[in-house]
C-alpha cells in the first residue's frame, strides 16, 4: 500500500479503524456476508444491481476488493439470475454506423462481456482495430485481457482502446429508447424482446451523413424487406467487379462523412 493511501487510515479513541470517513470492515467473511446480505436481499434494498449496491455500501464501509466481492455476490444470487435483462449493450461501427443492441445484465463482468463480444461481434465482423468505450479504462483493460485469453484468439494484442463518451452512441441511445417505447406500446411485449426488431429497423434507416442506410454501407446492397423486395433473378455482382464496387462505395462513404 502506498504512503498516500496509508495516510487515509485513522484510528479513533475507541480503537475503531476508519478509511477517510468509512468504517473499515475486518477480514471476517461471516461479517462481510451479513453486510452484503443486508445491502442486497433485505426488504429495504430489494436486490439492487452491482453498481447501486456498491454505491450504497461504499458510503459507510471499506474493505479491500469490496467491488469485486459485490460483483461475485450478485452473480451468484439465485433471484437475480432468474430475473431478466436490465441493460442494453450498444456496439456501433463508426464507419458504417451499423449497430448491435445486445440485452445484458448490469452485473456482467469483463469476462462475461468478452464472451458475448466474441459470440455476437467477432463471429460476424472480426476483431476491431480500435475500440472506444465509456466504461472506464480499468474495465476495458480487463475486457481486452479476457479477449486475448479466450480460446482461439491470438492476434488481439494489436487492438487499442480509447475510453470516452461518444456523441454518436448517445444519439443512437436516444433513437433506441424511442423505438423500444413505441414497440412496447404497439405490441405489448417486453423491451428485450423488441431489441432484434429495433436493431433491424435502425440498421435499415436512412442516415443523412452516409446518404444510405447502415446495412447498405456495411454489405454494399440494400436489405431485402417487404418494402424493398428484390427477385432472385436480378443481377448480382461477383469477382473483380465486386471488389471495385466495394472500394468505390468505401470512398463514397468517406467523402460523405467528411462533409457531414
From TrEMBL:
Residues 44-222 form the Integrase catalytic domain. Signal peptide: none annotated. GO terms for biological process: DNA integration. It comes from the Eukaryota. One of its GO terms (molecular function) is nucleic acid binding. This is Integrase catalytic domain-containing protein. It comes from Paspalum notatum var. saurae. The lineage of its organism: Eukaryota, Viridiplantae, Streptophyta, Embryophyta, Tracheophyta.
